[in-house]
Amino acid sequence: MKAIVKTSQEAGVFEVKDVPTPKPGRGEILVQVKAASLCYTDVAILNNKYKGRRPVSHPHHYGP
User: Model's pTM, two decimal places?
Assistant: First the structure.
């Protein structure tokens, strides 16, 4: 599957990468996302203001 991944500490640097499709575990399901949007945290990550772990996939929130 495709994912937008921040792979560098440099602000504004990200890559569209092929990543393995996750395998759902016990009590989990896998859903197909047709559309998603960015939130403030995604913008902070892309602008290097986020201090969490890397790599980070974007967007990290999905809705109906």
Answer: 0.54
